[in-house]
Amino acid sequence: MNALNTSGLDDVTFADTLLSDVDGAVGRLVIAGRDVERAAPESTLADFAADLWTQRPDDVRASLGRARVEAFARLPGVGEALAQPDGMDAVRSALSLLDASYDDPARITAAAGVFAAAWMRHRAGAAPLAPDPAADHGADLLRCMRGAPARAPESAAINAYLRTVSDHGMNASTFTARVVASTGADLRASVVAAMGALKGPLHGGAPGPVLDMLDAIGAPDHAVAWLEAELSAGRRIMGMGHRIYRVRDPRAAVFERAIEALTDGGVSSGRLRLARAVERAAEGVLRARHPARPLHANVEFYTAVLLDALGLPREGFSLVFAAGRVVGWCAHVAEQRAHGRLVRPASRYVGPAAA
Ligand code: COA
Predict the structure, then answer these.
(1) Residue ranges of domains in the chain, CATH in brackets
(2) Which residue in 134, 133, 136, 138 sits closest to 160, CA to CA?
């Protein structure tokens, strides 16, 4: 059978949005009026959530704190779901068990983070840790995820990560959330569907495999041969390439700076040195194979190094991504409800004529 041409879907101009702008030509990401590369170093996920949800930062901080405690109290009711071996399956299933009181941005955002932390603790054979409602959301999640309090630079680093991934235009999971919301379904249904879209390695599932790649390469000198072998085997290089960016993903630079701040200017991070060498090598081998298609590091390349430096398990990296991106999903669902109509792309029938 001939391959179907689905590329027309790429060209659909979906909607005006007040939430974020991705400029793929110059490599710039603006979230609710803030350029992610120039965001104040002390700004947190809660600050970005306040902008995206058009709420006051103090109110968002307070409601996230309360909601983390309430989500923790729900854990006994979702225990079976969170025992699943795959973290994305576990948290997606657990979120789907919540009641209508979770059709609220702060409550479902807190639940996504608290459930992710509980899954990581379960995986490590440990009991979940109770959230601290007075703590910063990102720092508290980091503590609950890895079981050790966040030092000030770690708190800054996890917030740099979470705020930077909080929204990103009409990416696959956000589009999914908007499609579901456009049918009149509730916020929980939209977020659960978006979690499904974020699971795949072409969207949110690459950072764990990026770390596996760095481990497999081991030393800068091995990079070119390893990468060439991957491509010759027909596999893609994880953490490289993007649908929109034709230059380096601006989020990579934010994460690099956060890693440097965590590790004495990067001096003590052998992993960062290796990652930079592998990135350069990957750009080279991909340029040779795809001279017409610029392929550079995307968000997930340095996500892997940053979340690893924060002591988080690679199997949980996509869950940390989801704990940040859920903020944007909630904002898009609200925007879709307020201004959108049913999303219904067209298809062109190329099957057999009716008999
Ligand atoms: N490694 C090897 N080749 C790649 C590549 C990668 N990471 N990314 C793109 N390419 C190649 C494709 O094989 C294709 O080559 P072809 O035209 O000879 O078939 C060409 O570049 C264009 O790829 P295409 O699949 O059309 O681009 P896309 O816009 O659909 O893909 C991604 C975007 C992100 C899905 C893609 O770059 C990718 O698979 N990256 C690796 C996974 C990853 O990092 N995911 C996280 C994304 S944030």
Answers:
(1) 4-202+314-339 (1.10.580.10), 207-309 (1.10.230.10)
(2) 138
